[in-house]
Amino acid sequence: MKDIKVLGSGCANCKTTIALIEQVAQDRGVPVHIDKVQDMQAIIGYGVMATPGVVVDGKVVHAGGLPTRDKIASWLA
Q1: What is the reported pTM?
Q2: For the chain, which residues make up each domain, given as ranges?
Q3: What tens digit of pLDDT does each residue of 41-67 get?
Q4: What does 27-61 look like in DSSP terms, one character per residue?
Q5: What angle do CA 67, 41, 66 make, to 5 degrees?
Q6: Handedness of CA 51, 3, 76, 59 (dihedral sign)
Q7: What CATH number labels 2-76?
Q8: How far is CA 48 from CA 7, 8, 28, 43, in A?
Q9: How far apart are CA 30 and CA 33, in angstroms?
């Protein structure tokens, strides 16, 4: 199971990022656990200055803008 954190204030891009990750994970049959992190101090603690940010298994893999489906698939591989 992949442990994924989506970092952001809850904006539309953050919600879309969560939905995209869920869709790609379901399409690929990869179980995921997604946490939403909205605390700005926690987000800054990851070194993310542009949201949405994505952390997979403790590693920052994305910051700012919507990730592509291909990029998400690479995180789940």
Answers
A1: 0.95
A2: 2-76
A3: 999 999 999 999 999 999 999 999 999
A4: HHT--EEEEEE--HHHHHHTT--SSSEEEETTEEE
A5: 10
A6: positive
A7: 3.40.30.10
A8: 8, 9, 27, 6
A9: 10
